[in-house]
Structures are given as structure tokens and as C-alpha cells.
Design a protein that fits this description.
Blueprint: H1 2-30, E1 47-51, E2 54-60, E3 66-71, E4 77-81, E5 85-91, E6 94-103, E7 106-116, E8 122-130, E9 134-140, E10 145-155, E11 161-168, E12 174-176
Antiparallel strand pairs: 1-2, 2-3, 3-4, 5-6, 6-7, 7-8, 9-10, 10-11, 11-12
Length: about 190
Amino acid sequence: MHRILIGALVVVAGLAIACVAYVVWNARQQTPQVAQQVNFSKAKPDFEIASFGGALLGYDAGEWGGNLSFRDAKGDVTEVIPDNVRAIIPHGTEVVVFTGLAHMGENHGAIYLLRPDAKRMFIVTQLHKLDGAPDMIESDAGAEAINFNVFSGTDDRRGEWIYLCRRLKRDWQLEVLTTCKVRGPG
């Protein structure tokens, strides 16, 4: 009888441990994963360009976020564009900024123009919303243009990603290129 009682207690203890383990496992499966916020004030910028009496700081942390910030002469930092910065290109007194992200189902991009303004350091204008994230951005000084690729988000059925070839002309119009001056990765 004593052995039966001890055996029953061992079975009950084993079931209790299994139940607790299941509850803990199930709770972990249902707990949503929250992306950690990147503290850009302590991060080294991917791009830093002296402009407008201070510095433009570009951050690209991929799916974790990014932004374009401005650090004035006093050291105060203000967020300007809340998106991953892919390139900052000075163009005379103006600055062109490419932003975007291609990650999993997300694929977006834009081109901004920053112009000097006597009242507020500079003004920001979105020139173009792109069909995808810009990539391989290259300034062509001779043509006064910027060549770049746009990630299409699709493949060519052979396993190669398709990039759309574009040029931002001096008059800020987009031109479709039939052949890429710059090539996408891979």
C-alpha cells in the first residue's frame, strides 16, 4: 500500500510539472515580440553631411527604423524625416535625401529635397514617392543627375531580384533608364 501511495504521488508530481511547463510554454507563444526602439541620439549616424549651419544626420537601422535628423550649431538635434536614410547628396545649396526600406513584406521609398530658407534654416519637400526602396545610389556630377535602382520586390523567375533603373535629373524629374548605370546586389 505504501508503495502504491508513493507511486501515485510521483505520477501526480510529474503531471503538475508538465502542466506548469505547458502553461509557461503557451504564455511565451502568445506574448507578442516588441521591436526594441533604437536610441538614435546615442547611435553613430550612417551619413553625416555639414549643411545649413549644422549637420544632417542619416540613420538606417533596417527594420528597426531610421531617420534624418538635423544637429544645429548649438548641438540640439531635431528629427526631420522619420524613415531610413539611404543617401544624403549635397547638390549646390540644396540637399537630396533618399529614404526607404525593403524588408519582408515592406518595400517603400521616397526622394526629398532640402532647400535653404531664411526663416527656418531649410524647408523639406517630397519630390517623389518611389515604387520601392532605393539602392545603389550614385551621383553623376558630369550629367548633374543621380542614378539609382529601385527594388521592385519581385524576381525574374530565375531567382534574381528585379531592380528598376532610374535617374533623378537636375530639374528633379525622374527618368526611366533602360540599362542600369549601377547594378543591384547579386
